[in-house]
Amino acid sequence: MAIEKMSIAKALNESLRKALEQDPKVLIMGEDVGKLGGVFRITDGLQKDFGEERVIDTPLAESGIVGTAIGLALRGYRPVVEIQFDGFVFPAYDQIVTQLAKMHARALGKIKLPVVVRIPYGGAIGAVEHHSESPEALFAHVAGLKVVSPSNASDAYWMLQQAILSDDPVIFFEPKRRYWDKGEVDTEAIPGELHKSRVVREGADLTLAAYGPMVKVCLEAAAAAAEEGKSVEVLDLRSMSPVDFDGIQASVERTRRLVVVHEAPVFLGVGSEIAARITERCFYHLEAPVLRVGGFHAPYPPARLEDEYLPGLDRVLDAVDRSLAY
């Protein structure tokens, strides 16, 4: 066992380093990922140690970055693409949904595209427009893509390696507001399944289900609820496509209530599908309707207003209280 305490940013860096060491076909591509080490320094030092042919500074052209990664994957490489900020992914959306997601089916399974698209996402960093989006539902809706997001350093380290090893394309959302949160990472552990949810706090009265940046908020809400005698379970979903509905169902059958939390807008968000599916599966177990907490159906606001837009402790606790009141 080799346990180290590190930030999520450091865990991602170490994970990429390990992947580069283990497989010469792994490449890293993106804007400023080389000499600069990325705007969040996730790729810091990798070009210096592995060279410019494996850690590649690209032009400012997201469509070209992903298109090039698709061509490299067709030739046997495993490209890891960085999109500098969430709102910059849309020029590459066509390449991702019409080529990357479809090629395996189009080739009747004969072609695989092991491409990882890393996207720092979410708000709460005081950024300007196009730097704080949560577009995960747009990708989870597309068949042929896996969509995941870690909430802690250990998952960041292991889930990124699992994504790189996957023969299917993976959209890897990194919660940028949590990059500097620290946690223990066992670099010799045997990781669990990439798309399995995980109970991170046990409870008996209600389940809070979240992923990425909102898991920490839900843990804080569960701790606050405990002071009032409420036992709240927190479930880290980890994967938005596929969703571990069996794991959610098991938790809901214990607690009989569910609140789904994400930064993205509630309208047609990942929580909408979870609410519908769990209502179908757990109708006779539920003692309250499945509630959702998230952003508003509006463009992401200027930084000075983002605290009002983003779901925080009070909005999560309000949903807990409403659910328990049924």
Automatic annotation (TrEMBL):
Q: Which SMART domains match?
A: Transket_pyr
Q: Does the keyword Zinc apply?
A: no
- Gene3D superfamilies registered for this protein in UniProt: 3.40.50.920, 3.40.50.970
Give the Transketolase-like pyrimidine-binding domain ranges. 6-181
Entry-linked InterPro entries: THDP-binding (IPR029061), Transketo_C/PFOR_II (IPR009014), Transketolase-like_Pyr-bd (IPR005475), Transketolase_C (IPR033248)
Q: Which UniProt keywords apply?
A: Oxidoreductase, Thiamine pyrophosphate
Cofactor(s) recorded for this entry are: thiamine diphosphate
Domain of life the protein comes from: Bacteria
User: Pfam families of this UniProt entry?
Assistant: Transket_pyr, Transketolase_C
The answer to whether the entry has keyword Oxidoreductase is yes
PANTHER family recorded for this chain? PYRUVATE DEHYDROGENASE E1 COMPONENT BETA SUBUNIT (PTHR43257), PYRUVATE DEHYDROGENASE E1 COMPONENT SUBUNIT BETA (PTHR43257:SF2)
What is this protein identified as?
Answer: Alpha-ketoacid dehydrogenase subunit beta
What organism is this sequence from? Answer: Streptomyces yangpuensis
